Amino acid sequence: MMDEINKSIEVLQNGGLILYPTDSVWSIGCDATNEEAIKKVFALKGIKEANSLLCLVANEAMLERYVEQVPDLAYDIMDLATKPTTIIYDKPKGIAPNLVAKDNTLAIRVASDKFCQYLIGKYKKPIVATSANLAGQKTPINFKEIDAAILSGVDYVVNLEPENQNAVPSSIIKLGMDGLVKVIRE
């Protein structure tokens, strides 16, 4: 696993794209603080930059470095979640501007699988995690379903099996500083 982490970090540091297994589905990733790398993700997927992507952090301490204020409820949601859960936070900071939504929010998930935790922890920055599909295509549930254009469009494909063989996209919940909770995707 460490060899895969080191190869991935080298690509991320050079503004490249990786294809990697996450705690939900196979994802396209890049440095979440690198505006040019994020543009490459939009181009590869064939989506407009107005679309928002999510990013992964290694732990709650890293989350707190990239969000102005993490609502208390977010910690409860993370503790009680039975599947990977992405939370949309107000007022992200230290992130590439083209990753932040027009309403000044950002979808972030604390990674729950070992590979992502180690990779992001060693890289010391959040990593984009967007499903490995082209615009208009369904989310691939396993590696075999990933389009050839995605496979050839990334700079490195991580050679590891996902911990979770029954991949499903994460739940997405929007948390407002006013305590408002909205389920975007179950």
Automatic annotation (TrEMBL):
Where does this protein chiefly localize? cytoplasm
Q: Which of the seven top EC classes does this enzyme belong to?
A: transferase
**Gene3D superfamilies reported in the protein's UniProt record:** DHBP synthase
The UniProt entry's GO biological process terms, in alphabetical order, are: regulation of translational fidelity; tRNA processing
Listed under catalytic activity are: L-threonine + hydrogencarbonate + ATP = L-threonylcarbamoyladenylate + diphosphate + H2O
Recall the GO molecular function terms of this protein's record: ATP binding; double-stranded RNA binding; L-threonylcarbamoyladenylate synthase; tRNA binding
This protein's GO cellular component annotations are: cytoplasm
Q: Which InterPro entries match?
A: DHBP_synth_RibB-like_a/b_dom, Sua5-like_dom, TC-AMP_synthase_SUA5
Which keywords are on file for this protein? ATP-binding, Cytoplasm, Nucleotide-binding, Nucleotidyltransferase, Transferase, tRNA processing
Q: Where in the cell is it found?
A: Cytoplasm
Family per similarity comment: Belongs to the SUA5 family.
What is the protein name stated in its UniProt record? L-threonylcarbamoyladenylate synthase
Q: Specify the species.
A: Maribacter cobaltidurans
